Amino acid sequence: MDHFLYRDGALYAEDVPVAEIAAAVGTPFYVYSTATLERHFKLFDEALEGTEHLVCYAMKAASNQAILKTLAKLGAGMDVVSQGEYLRARAAGVPGDKIVFSGVGKTYEEIHTALTGGIRQFNVESEPEMIVIDQVAQKLGVKAPITIRVNPDVDAKTHAKIATGKSENKFGIPISRAKEVYALAASLPGLEVIGIDCHIGSQLTDLEPFRLAYEKVAELTETLRAEGHNIRRLDLGGGLGIPYTRSNEAPPLPVEYGQLIKDTLGHLDCEIEIEPGRLIAGNAGLMVSKVIYVKSGEGRDFLIIDGAMNDLIRPAMYEAHHDIIPVIEPVPGTEQQPYDIVGPVCESGDTFAKQRNLAPMVAGDLVAFRSAGAYGAVMASEYNSRPLIPEVLVHGDQFAVIRERPSFDEMINRDTIPAWL
Ligand SMILES: *Cc1c(COP(=O)(O)O)cnc(C)c1O
């Protein structure tokens, strides 16, 4: 559920007409709903009620400071995958003891920053990384809290580019080797082993892969405890999918996911961490764009819009579907026609949708891409020298620009000319 609805024929973001934001900031832009962000966070938090837990928002999904602060105010922890994200989380007021550090390639400097600034735990992804964390911790005279990310070798049944829990993926250590890697961890004086971590992929629309993975985590918990490890925290990753189309079967709800966690792991008396990203931010954001031209091609009409693959890369990168709706609601009964909806970038991949049915559009009309809040703005680039598009946050009847569109001069002047030129 989200807070982008038509009212009297116009699309609203909460209590603000989307067209009003477009008039104020220009197109294209991203707009997020505070109420939706908050609602989604609370759904997870409530799903784990009765169990000691922390919901750590996977901030790579959408990492604007205002979004982080909105969630931090509700008590969210953060899952970070880089020094930049760590520093963003701290700047948004998240205490170190609510930040978990994930990612396969944490560098010495990143580990140092997190250990000196405060960290809840590192989710360790390999033995070489574990050794570096130990070295940094020893140098600082502290013990680094760690979990080890195990790869349970289950098929997440999602897009290949976002499946992470199969043995051929680069993530974690094979669960079959967990005993020896935990033994190594226990022997390193700079580390304190506190738990197990597991994240099998993103946009999962079925609970079964989670069940298979968590059953393996439960078994591993018992095995490691029998070996003398004090396993007291289980980080279960993120990955719960969202509906990208209205017609699709609905993915499982957070409450069902929470129940699965309790069923598979509740008996272990561990603190539970989850790291949802997409489900919190995805349907909390739209990308709004304007039709530049309607071009009649051979046998098809193109809607050329001012948003492009550099602004929202998911369709080009993952063949992702986004519902695209007009900002002015068509009068009921309007006959639709198929359009290929494309951006201005010089690549055929800059195609958002093929033969998508929409009410007839003309130049100047606004369209909104639904479910664009996660992996949207954060993946944007300035390809084709198109400045990053602004981000706007709505709160009831208020809205604020939370990242400005840079001017062309700002974009150009970030480059510097060497002395020999
Ligand atoms: C990407 C990622 C997440 C979040 O995944 P979503 O599908 O956005 O919920 C959580 N944990 C880790 C380690 C990740 O890499």
TrEMBL record:
Reactions catalysed according to its record: meso-2,6-diaminopimelate + H(+) = L-lysine + CO2
Pfam families associated with the record: Orn_Arg_deC_N (PF02784), Orn_DAP_Arg_deC (PF00278)
Annotated PROSITE patterns: ODR_DC_2_2
Entries under CDD domains matching the protein: PLPDE_III_DapDC (cd06828)
Cofactor: pyridoxal 5'-phosphate
Signal sequence range: none
Modified residues (N6-(pyridoxal phosphate)lysine): 60
Active-site annotation: 346 (proton donor)
Keywords, in A-Z order: Amino-acid biosynthesis, Decarboxylase, Lyase, Lysine biosynthesis, Pyridoxal phosphate
Binding, substrate: 278, 314, 318, 347, 375
Domain Orn/DAP/Arg decarboxylase 2 N-terminal: 35-281
UniProt superkingdom: Bacteria
Assigned EC number: 4.1.1.20
Domain Orn/DAP/Arg decarboxylase 2 C-terminal stretches: 29-373
Pathway info: Amino-acid biosynthesis; L-lysine biosynthesis via DAP pathway; L-lysine from DL-2,6-diaminopimelate: step 1/1
One BP annotation, GO: lysine biosynthetic process via diaminopimelate
Stored SUPFAM superfamilies: Alanine racemase C-terminal domain-like (SSF50621), PLP-binding barrel (SSF51419)
InterPro entries, A to Z: Ala_racemase/Decarboxylase_C, DAP_deCOOHase_LysA, De-COase2_C, De-COase2_CS, De-COase2_N, Orn/DAP/Arg_de-COase, PLP-binding_barrel
A GO MF label: pyridoxal phosphate binding
Function text: Specifically catalyzes the decarboxylation of meso-diaminopimelate (meso-DAP) to L-lysine.
HAMAP family in alphabetical order: LysA
Protein family per UniProt: Belongs to the Orn/Lys/Arg decarboxylase class-II family. LysA subfamily.
Record text on subunit structure and interactions: Homodimer.
Name of this protein: Diaminopimelate decarboxylase
Encoding gene (name): lysA
